[in-house]
Amino acid sequence: MDKLVSSIYRATEFIESNLSRxxxxxxxxxxxxxxxxxxxxxxxxxxxxxxxxxxxARRLASSLxxxxxxxxxxxxxxxxxxxxxxxxxxxxxxxxxGMTPSKFRKGCFTVNLTEKINIAEFIQLDNGIVFETGFVLxxxxxxxxSRHYFSPETNWHEHTANRTGNEFFYHVKDKIPNALHPDTxxxxxxxxxxxxxxxxxxxSVEVSAATQVPVGMSGERVGTHKYAVFQYIGDIHPNQLTxxxxxxxxxxxxxxxxxxxxxxxxxxxFFESIDVSVANDHYCEVKLYVPIAAPA
Length: 296
Known about the structure:
This protein has 296 residues and is of the alpha+beta class. It is built from 10 helices and 11 strands. It is elongated, with a radius of gyration of 23 Å.
């Protein structure tokens, strides 16, 4: 099992074993041998909500059986699941389910449960894990960077995207004025159907619309789109990321997810977004944006 996946598994099991008491982020991190900063980010991605919100939601979900099938007072149930005070339990319950525990107990209500994280549901790779994070509508935005042309085959054998991306990010991007998010790398790929050697790759940063494109660089406006977003979290630094690392993700997206999603590609491009400020030698996050639309 990959180190990152193993850490998520250990954290999940530790949480499940301690639903009857209040636990802290430091305790969870200590139990799975990972920094609490990176644990929080990885577990929040896995749970699709902040880690400690997930912990609270699991305690609440686990309390429902006792709430429905016993005559214990609310205070007793609260303390059984790590809430020191009755009012703390009630506030958390209302926040999660939109009603008080007493109302839930007396009525016949359907509530959405936060289930235990299931590692088997994630796409596991040699150096990380992939999460389907959902859909976003992103308004038009502007990029400036250094455009390159190469085929997927060349990229596979020569790591061209990695090489040109590192060159841009560490030696070129600071020449671009008005970068909106200077620590976030955008790699935009456009392709021409049937002509692999016309594929373009734009290592870039997002800029304001009025930014003047420096000599020798390229600017591009990306129109408003709905995107399916996939997040890769790996145990390498993003400057080591190559097409080999991401090829399994694209195989999954193109061969499994897209044909069964009810969507089609909306345009002949995609891009990856990497916030380098959260990375270290053993951690990276990459978000892959695929423009989609309903079939015509």
